[in-house]
Amino acid sequence: MAAGRAPLGLRRWLSSPAPAPRVCVVGSGPAGFYTAQHILKHHGGAQVDIYEKLPVPFGLVRFGVAPDHPEVKNVINTFTQTAHSGRCAYYGNVTVGRDVTVPELRQAYHAVVLSYGAEDNRVLGIPGENLSGVYSARAFVGWYNGLPENRDLKPDLSCETALILGHGNVALDIARILLSPLQLLRKTDITDSSLAALACSKVKRVWLVGRRGPLQVAFTIKELREMINLPGARAVLDPADFTGLENAVKDAPRPRKRLTELMIKTALEKPREKPVEAQAAQAAASREWGLKFQRSPQEVLPTPDGKRARGVRMALTRLEGSGDSARAIPTGEVEELECGLVLSSIGYRSLPLDPAVPFDTQRGIIPNSSGRVEGVPGLYCSGWVKRGPTGVIITTMNDSFDTAQSVLEDLQGGVLDMSPSREGFRAVESILCSRGVRPVSFSDWEKIDAAEVARGKAAGKPREKIVDPAEMLRLIGH
Question: Which residues touch 248 (CB under 8 Å, ≥6 apart)?
Fold first, then answer.
């Protein structure tokens, strides 16, 4: 053999290109798309397939962001660019865990990332929670945003007072939607049926109730300012809740300080101290909203026939500790608040997807380290199912990049089984076909999108969402 020449078999092995990594992402919300985007950007050969149980993509950007916050939905443009990449494919109308299992995906792909979010809500765990007139914030938001599973909610808006349990941005979103002038909502992509229901709504007062105090609220200043400036509605804040807080907040982080100062100003400002036009607007306001603190729900009280909610009994609490770690302890005193509509906004919850995936039911997350699922090489998670249902889209973006980085490190470090026999979607396609499941492509979604935009244009809205998956599938000839 000539010096310097490798044996023929070895030469062939050295020159055969490594198989292109096939990565599968489950869930097409921000976590899924940001994970895909980062992998595609930093690995020139990777092929990423995104699976989604609904025919339509974008998760909470489509179904969670308030209709009157269109600017937050602009990230859809970035996600669309990712989907248009020649190395990215979208398969909607595929329920992972039912139509195809996680072990089957792991057989077909070199890496699988679970980014399916939080599909359930936390329950209050109190008597009367199942009475008519009590809804989870998740279902209510899904209803006005066109989430197919909530399209038949038909909330009863015939009462004057609504009570929202929770002091987060979702609670403020719901209060704003309930109290917004119709002419503002008509210009948004809110669903036609919820607009019709809100047009007949008798709700004119909304209380937002929290277990802890003003220094522990979870909403942000932008949402609070929007609520304070809502046309036709006035803020009712009890000055007693805010006296002495200026000192307590002196050394707080800047966002908390500014938020508290805005609440203090709103609560303590005398009407005559406001500009004349603001005084006039407040006097003319036919609707009102307010924040109630240190109250913990004990029971939803029934009407005499035992069928509907008529109010909530709440334990008054005192705080132990300070700042974000302060705990609400019942004082033994109680208070009843009359209301005919109760909305529970105490957080979302992730659910286990497949028996083959470890799941921490206490924390509602998949146990992981930097997105690597514990004890299952080649399986990853990102977004809310990884860290819990907190944070805004930018938080999810950073979190997803972190998981994507773990995938890239494992691809480069030779940790993953890079067998060329893993055929990605080709293997999954035959499984889906055998089970009678027809995936929806991104170009199919773009037909649905065009139809929604056209219907919206006719109504003077940015879009009219199609809320029935069967209608979506008919539209694309499925």
Answer: 215, 322
Nearest to 33 by CA among 93, 96, 75, 95: 75
For the segment 389-429, what is each residue's pLDDT rounded down to a tens digit? 888 889 999 999 999 999 999 999 989 999 888 999 999 99
pLDDT at 13 over 60: no
Q: Is 307 exposed, middle or buried (0-12, 13-18, 19+ CB in 10 A)?
A: exposed
Residue among 41, 102, 45 at smallest CA distance from 378? 102
Listed residue (212, 137, 133) closest to 173, CA to CA = 137
Task: Indicate whether 9 pLDDT > 50.
Answer: no
pTM for this prediction: 0.92
Q: State the Cα–Cα distance between residues 468 and 471, nearest whole angstrom.
A: 5
Integer CA distances (angstroms), 425 to 263, 431, 445, in order: 53, 10, 18
- Report the alpha-carbon distance of residue 128 to residue 141 in Å, rounded: 21
And the tokens for 160?
């004057």
Note the pLDDT tens digit of each residue in 429-466: 999 999 999 999 999 999 999 999 999 999 999 999 99
CA 342 → CA 155, 206, 263, 275, 308, distances in Å?
A: 10, 10, 24, 35, 10
- Determine the Cα angle at 128 with ends 123 and 134, to 5°: 65
Tell me the pLDDT tens digit for each residue of 20-56: 999 999 999 999 999 999 999 999 999 999 999 999 9
User: 211 CB contacts (<8 Å, ≥6 apart)?
Assistant: 294, 295, 296, 317, 328
Q: Quote the percentage of the chain above a pLDDT of 70.
A: 93
Q: How many residues does the chain have?
A: 478
Residue bearing tokens 């992972």: 96
The whole-angstrom separation of Cα 82 and Cα 368 is 26
Q: How far apart are CA 345 and CA 121, in angstroms?
A: 8
Rounded CA-CA distance 151/179 in Å is 21
Q: pLDDT tens-digit profile of 68-78?
A: 999 999 999 99
How many CB atoms sit inside 10 A of residue 79's CB?
Answer: 23
The radius of gyration computed from the CA coordinates of the chain, to the nearest angstrom, equals 26
| 439 or 14, higher pLDDT | 439
| Res 274 pLDDT > 60 | yes
The CA-CA-CA angle for residues 255, 257, 263, to 5°, reads 105
C-alpha distances in Å from residue 276, one per residue of 41, 183, 467:
55, 25, 45
Counting DSSP H helices and E strands in the chain, the numbers are 18, 18
